[in-house]
């Protein structure tokens, strides 16, 4: 997984380049303002493409946002499924590092995920997915339900803080801290 939103899909290179520019422009703008505040002119100026090019690919800014979010969600799903469950039984570190490295490599996407204007639902889905994957081998039934919700909320806050702080801490170091925090969700801790 290379973390590239714009992998080849049988489209002409110029089309991919235009879509990439528009998606990157949207991601940058969403870290600052809501979709309702973003104009097509702002998008096309930021992307350095013509309005006609925009309308050739998208109906409106919301259409661009939906398609961009869908592609990011596909990437996040790929990351979540990239670590075998057998490795997660030994701890969440391998998965946490992959997620953090993706976010570090895609800083504008990370800022958008952390922004109230961007795609907070994607951040929530990501954290829920991490929690369910990591705790699913240890907890069952009600413990898994409540434990994963609790853990997801904590992960979300940690990720947002890390992103807002400029990702100064290395992904490996941040993953260790998160792993320690998630350790309190172990079966022995839950049975006390």
For the structure shown, list the relevant keywords.
Arc Repressor Mutant, subunit A, single chain, disordered C terminus, 70% helix, 11 helices, mainly alpha
> End-to-end distance, in Å?
40 Å
How many domains comprise the coordinates? 2
| Overall 3D form | elongated
Beta-strand portion reads: under 5%
What is the helical fraction, as a range of percent? over 70%
| SSE order, one letter for each helix or strand | HHHHHHHHHHH
Main sheet properties: none
Number of helices: 11
**Structural class category:** mainly alpha
Average pLDDT metric? 88
How many whole angstroms does the radius of gyration measure? 18 Å
User: Uncertain runs with pLDDT below 50, 5 residues or more?
Assistant: 185-192
The beta-strand count equals: 0
Oligomer: single chain
Topology:
Layout: H1 13-30, H2 40-47, H3 51-57, H4 61-81, H5 85-88, H6 93-105, H7 107-114, H8 120-135, H9 141-164, H10 171-182, H11 187-190
Helix pairs in contact: 1-2, 1-4, 1-7, 4-8, 6-10, 7-9, 8-9, 9-10
Q: What does this protein structure show overall?
A:
Helix content is 70%, strand content 0%. It is mostly helical and 192 residues long. It folds into two domains: 52 residues, Homeodomain-like (Arc Repressor Mutant, subunit A), CATH 1.10.10.60; 108 residues, no CATH class. Helix 8 crosses helix 9 and helix 9 packs antiparallel against helix 10.
